[in-house]
Amino acid sequence: MAEEKTNAPQAEQTPESINEQRQIRLDKLKAMQEADNDPFEITLATQTHESAEIKANYDALEGKDVSVCGRIIARRIMGKASFVTILDKEGRIQSYVSVNDVGAEDYQAFKKQWDIGDIIEIKGFVFKTKTGEISVHAQHIRLLAKSLLPLPEKFHGLTDTDTRYRRRYVDLIMNEDVRDTFFKRSRIIAEIRRYLDAQGFIEVETPMLVSNAGGAAARPFETHFNALNEDLKLRISLELYLKRLIVGGMERVYEIGRVFRNEGLDTRHNPEFTLMELYQAYTDYNGMMDLTENLYRHLAQTVLGTTTIVYNGIEMDLGKPFTRITMVDAVKQYAGVDWNEIHTLEDARKAADEHHVEYEKRHTKGDILNLFFEEYVEEHLIQPTFVMDHPIEISPLTKKKPGNPDYVERFEFFMNGWEMANAYSELNDPIDQRERFKAQEAALAQGDEEANTTDEDFLMALEYGMPPTGGIGFGIDRMCMLLTDSAAIRDVLLFPTMKTLDK
After folding, report:
1. Can you spell out the DSSP letters for 9-67?
2. CATH superfamily of the 174-322+383-492 domain
3. Quick one: pLDDT at residue 412?
4. Assessment of whether the complete model's pTM goes beyond 0.85
């Protein structure tokens, strides 16, 4: 039998060749429609099994009837019998298609009118070919949807990152590792929910459109609500509404949702991203450290099957107890500056000048400590590390450390040199909280565009009484980057923010 070279190497596709192929496919579709055989009129298909299920259960399914659906990604067209490979959400499976089984009319349509990229239904029985490949012996085939645009031919593929992000639908078709990343992302989030639900947390939803976007140091996006003639903002955090629920007696709450920050784009930042925040009454930041360590270990074990993860060739061990270090001790270790000996703002500025740490006039002693940390420490925090006890100036929603009011009970969790989570012993004193908001308002007036503003309704909630509470925020996208070994945040966002192309 002569083989039709459907999959032979071709020249890289050009706009002209794509338009030519599209017209050919349109002509095929028109011919089918004129013959009263329009695939787009089909509303229902039968899918009894998926590719991976058939391969994993071959012994039980051998000789049994199945119905599979998927996209044609390869064909070997021969005389009266051919092979076709389809792609479903679980992977690929081959089918043997013979004129003697499916009939002359359907076989002719399969050869002449169907194309790579078309979506089809195959009914038949499970068998192995002479080469041992698990396949479906087709007894009935049906075209479910006609692909009018050709897929990138496999010898060049879809590799341009800009095109991959803009046309994620094609990226998912062509790149198995991309599909695997997003299936893992889905499982990570499902496992987070399962873990927290088992710990007695309940999942809630809070507003995305808010009058006061607080809870984080970030610039919000602003919009206008016509019906009420009011300016609103997109939330930058989940914190202040979730704390209201703690006041209301819900005690253990969490939310996984999109937040929006009017900031730049890079490998770890997208202006809309997925944040999870949780709050637990009657615990503190130590309880949040324990929860974080246990949650990360659980996710690695259940999703990856190991507590040792590898990112960009670097191994990180989640099986060992996570390191815990104060910010002051970390700066002393990596910058050689002992902040316990820095008593005034002038001392802090002098140390910054000597160590080439840039600061602004508005920056306080605590701000400069944080600048030292960012400059000298972060890049070294590869293994799981909790950095504790931040300066009060950069932590407006956090309880002071007993006996050391210049610092607060806060930690940031680091891996691979990245901040992965941020947690507090939550400030529940409404009088202190009002003073913190005043300090933030002053910073805003001095040019800090990321400073918080006073939220009177939140202060009123605190005046009704909030129990001692631990809270934490996790960046879900960075978590997924680490657990899937993805180089950029865009690789774990199905539709990342992109600059609009000129038309």
Report:
1. --PPP-HHHHHHHHHHHHHHHHHHHHTT--GGG---------HHHHHHTHHHHBT-EEE
2. Bira Bifunctional Protein; Domain 2 (3.30.930.10)
3. 98
4. yes
